[in-house]
Amino acid sequence: MPNAASNRLAAAPADLARASRADFTREHGMSPRPAPQEGDLHHRRIAAVLARLQGSESMPSLAQLAREAEYSPFHLQRLFVAYTGLSPKEYWQALALGRASSELLDQPSVLHAALAAGLSGPSRLHDLMIRLTALTPGEFRGAGAGMRIQTALFDSVLGRVALAVTTRGVLAMAFVDDADGATFMAELAQDWPQAALGRDDAALQPLVAEIQARLAGSGPQRPIGLALAGTPFRFQVWQALLAIPEGAVCSYAVLAERIGRPGAARAVGQAVGANPVAVLIPCHRVIRASAGLGGYHWGVARKQRLLAMEFGRCGRVASTPG
Fold first, then answer.
1. Which end of the chain has the smaller Cβ count within 10 Å, N or C?
2. Is 283 a catalytic residue?
3. Which candidate in 157, 171, 278, 283 is catalytic?
4. pTM score, two decimals?
């Protein structure tokens, strides 16, 4: 029977984020969402605060964080809530849980309750709002002949993001370390040499706004289609990843069991690592059954930050003022 902890894990992320923002609005009489044109600078500065907290052995004061970010304490608190769904202190507490990663799988009943909720409860909202389809054999064999791939680059609290979209849906999304996304674009051109490839940030802005809102904990507001290339086994694993709700984690072995392939943890791990769409297919929610968070294609430090935001928003840590 689900207990209080599993109920927290099954809470809808949209509801949790709305509650956080509603509390802020009641207290200060204003919305925490900044003007859109300021977004890139704020994303970069809040990303720096996340990294600062992750690298600190003790919790810095809000005043200290604000000075380093070139904000007033009030402004930093306001923006941090808007972009992560948490206060800096709540995020710090969630980071501490992530550091003790070996404890995250200590309660299998909670995990299984969370996974069950992901399949049948409110947390399935994310699953339902992500439509996963396969590219046709012709598209794959033709190396993208006749395909038009639009790309965009944008900032997030977890770093620079590169996005590739076809008329059928998102083809790839990745965190990138180079400002112009040159490596991502080169890989796209190599994988789909016959496709018409071009950058169009303006055309993809509505989709970018939806992705940024999900990263901030606002929950899905509109469906996002994914049109990917992969084997049937990989699609089975990627579909199973969509059922892991925010605030829960899963081991490779348990994920293998969920798809009816016990003993195939290694193959499952390879399929998880081959996920071409960061965050939207939540491969970051799979960790090792032993110590350690496990690998992440876009960096273990980023995986820890992402999980910390999700743990905090879903009540995996005790809430205290600040």
1. N
2. yes
3. 283
4. 0.78
